[in-house]
Amino acid sequence: MSYTQDEDATLALSSVSGILLNVLIPLQSNAIDPVDIDSPEDSEFEKSLCAVWDLSSIHDYARIFINEAQVHRMVLKAISITQRVRTEELAMGILANVACFEDTAIVIVNDEDVTTVLGRIITGSADGRVLVESLRLLRNLLTNCSNKYRIIVADISSYSIINQILFFIYNTMNTELLSSAIGTMKLLISTQPELFNNKQEELNNLFRWICDRLDSLEFTKETSSTIISFVIELVDTDAIEHTKDDVSKIFKYYEKVRHEFLDDEEITNMVKGKDKTFRARKQVPEKTHQHRLQRYAEVTLGSGNLKLAVQLPEGEDLREWLAVHTYDFYNQINMLYGIITEYCTPQRCPVMSAGARVEYRWQDNKHYKKPTTVSAPHYVDLLMNWIQGQLEDNDVFPSQLGAPFPKNFSSIVKTIFRRLFRVYAHIYCHHLEAIQQLNAEPHLNTSFKHFMYFVYEFKLMDKSEMQPLAEKITNVLGDEYVLT
Ligand SMILES: [Zn+2]
After folding, report:
1. Residue 335 CB burial class (10 angstroms; 0-12, 13-18, ≥19)
2. Domain of life, per the record (predicted)?
3. DSSP codes, 63-114
């Protein structure tokens, strides 16, 4: 067995040895730049780097490049001797590519020169393309080397990286760099909050700056989705001072982005949580059956007929259809509740209730063995964490196409829906005014309507459990939906 593996490795290394020699030989004689230093065409050396760039996006090649050929040392040397920004861009791009994979990311982050050069370029380069690749490298290192992040941060913070990234955001005319800088800031805030301990004012200014531009700036779709997930996260974590007006503005912007890019898979996924916007959600892998179903559901929704949209498409698997919608409603409710968290506090809502007569008590048979009264925000937190745990459990919600669902799948789904309903009930009974002030009522109603049609279509709840919102159900769904 090991023989075969060795042979494969040798084969692969030899298959790229020509390309690597084309990089190595000019490097050894310090002759990588062309005679015409300002030539807009790629030099011979740069063409070789392009080939390495392409291959380095494939995991097997990234391993060979880093573990066997030490390509990171080659590109570091190239950066140190070149006078061309194109060469720098390609070199940083190669590092960013290999940093996409955990094992190769760890090798290069352990090389101090990589983080030193990264810090130097981010604070010193004036070229947009070089900076975009450098920030991409930084994000990939932060994502893939979480246990090493202190090293990265120690290296980069000596260059006051945060101020530099803020500088890009405020000053660049390059939308790609703007988007990249905001995405990097978002990742830094969520992965290393301690960096921002005495940066409250900077964060507030940044939030203000973005909010003030939501109406006026025409962002590209990539930037829009980065921005929306960023501001929602800021609001969600209470990291910044914000007004009702801000939330309302963000909400409108979210709706606009959602509406404009509904047909764009990438954006929809990012806004809906593929980028871990609201809470970490298991990704529905692209090209799988579930992903296709999710698209199908979105397109049908676009038609505006919610009652039709919930029906199981012909020939599709019921459990996959249920799974896709469970993800979706979880995210919707998470977002709806997220916008009223400042109103739903332990002081104002000391119990989880739906009107004066209905109280929900939490029980999970782990930490809460008996039904226990907890405050509404605590209850919602427990509830959402529990659902997230189910969604992330591969034995309950398999991510692979064809993997079996558990026997009790439908009863788990029913429990999830019953619990999600309680969040709608609490919002409607206790926070409708806040929702109205935020101009979010139409969205709440649409979301609830969709949810209830789905519940009816697949008989996911008992009528008795719907009682707290009996009137609302008839109002929103129509007269034929009367609970008796
Ligand atoms: Zn509340």
Report:
1. buried
2. Eukaryota
3. HIIIIIT-HHHHHHHHHHH---HHHHHHHHHHHHHHTTSHHHHHHHHTSHHH
The Å distance, Cα 349 to ligand 1 centre, comes to 5
Asked if 142 and 168 sit in the same domain, the reply is: no
Check whether residue 131 and residue 173 sit in a common domain.
no
| Domain membership of residue 349 as a residue range | 307-477
In one-letter notation, the amino acid at residue 457 is E
344 marked among binding-site residues: yes
Phi, psi of 359 (to 5 degrees): -120, 135
Q: Check whether 426 is labelled as a binding-site residue.
A: yes
Same domain membership, residue 135 and residue 32: yes
Distance in Å, CA 345 to ligand 1 centroid: 6
pTM of the model: 0.55
Residue 145 is labelled as binding a ligand = no
Secondary structure tally for the chain: helices H, strands E:
24, 2
Q: Residue range 288-309: average pLDDT?
A: 57
Tell me what pLDDT residue 446 has. Answer: 83
What CATH number is attached to the domain comprising 99? 1.25.10.10
- How much distance in Å is there from the Cα of 414 to the middle of ligand 1? 23
